[in-house]
Amino acid sequence: MVLRKYNVKEKYGIVWISLNNRNDIPEFPEYYNPTFKKVRIGPFTFNANPFRVMDNLLDVSHFPFVHEGILADPKYTRVDNYEVIIEEEEIIAKGIRVYEPISESFVNYTFKVLSPLTLYYRKDYEDNKALSTYISIFPESKDKSVVYGIMAFNHDMPEEKVLELQNEIMEQEKALLESLPNEFYLDEELHVVADKLSLVYRDWLKKRVGRRSDLGLI
């Protein structure tokens, strides 16, 4: 019998296990900022492919139809062109502008794909307030995912309301994701300008992970 040793580390209240020799954990800048309140979200369980869950979280174009009245409004479905770059093995998307009914204002999203299944995103409001979310997806299998996360915000909404809205959003995501195939297709599906981040993510996955039927990546 051969026993393998893995690096284990606790950070942000989450226990991380590294399957290789890397011991670095992606940063969550607002976590250490005393002006931001922090709340833990999840775990949320989805009977869905973990990479599809990640891809769906990157897709703002579905907000007006799936998260109507919370994250977006069907009257504002257009997503203008935005910047996507790869920097130090991370995908960064900036300048994604969405009208948010609950705040009655436009918000600007910044997304950072920190690893194939770890995501940071921040939305900045017109009054200089912000909300950031740090999410890591545990791939229990190719068709089951567990989502863990932390939110940090410096606006005046009560923590209970923030959690209530996030739970509602995740229930809406669950209904959508569990209606889709468990396989995550790296090439197929039609795309528009709003899908630029998704396209870069899929190409990045092909290079970093490759096609893996055991992971549902085909």
Which percent bin holds the helix content? 10-25%
Q: What gyration radius follows from the Cα positions, in whole Å?
A: 17 Å
pLDDT < 50 stretches: none
Q: What overall geometry do the principal axes of the alpha carbons give?
A: globular
Strands of the widest sheet, in order across it, are: 3-9-8-7-6-5-4
Overall pLDDT level: 92
Number of strands: 9
Q: Indicate the proportion of strand residues.
A: 25-35%
The CATH topology assignment is: Naphthalene 1,2-dioxygenase Alpha Subunit, Chain A, domain 1
CATH class: Alpha Beta
Give the SSE order as H and E letters: EEEHHEEEEEEHH
CATH superfamily: Naphthalene 1,2-dioxygenase Alpha Subunit, Chain A, domain 1
**How far do the termini sit from each other?**
33 Å
| Major sheet attributes | 7 strands, antiparallel
Please state the structural category: alpha+beta
Per DSSP, the total helix count is: 4
Please give the domain count.
1
CATH hierarchy: architecture: Alpha-Beta Complex
What is this structure's SSE topology?
Elements: E1 7-11, E2 14-18, E3 37-46, H1 50-57, H2 63-66, E4 83-87, E5 90-100, E6 105-115, E7 118-124, E8 130-141, E9 144-153, H3 159-177, H4 196-208
Task: Characterise the protein shown here.
It is built from four helices and nine strands, in the order E-E-E-H-H-E-E-E-E-E-E-H-H. With about 220 residues, the chain is an alpha+beta fold. It has one domain (about 45-210): Naphthalene 1,2-dioxygenase Alpha Subunit, Chain A, domain 1. The strands form two sheets. It has a seven-stranded antiparallel beta sheet with strand order 3-9-8-7-6-5-4, with helices on one face. It has a two-stranded antiparallel sheet with strand order 1-2. Strand 6 and strand 7 (about 120-125) form a beta hairpin. The longest helix is centred in the C-terminal third of the chain and has 19 residues, at about 160-175. The model has no long low-confidence stretch (mean pLDDT about 90).
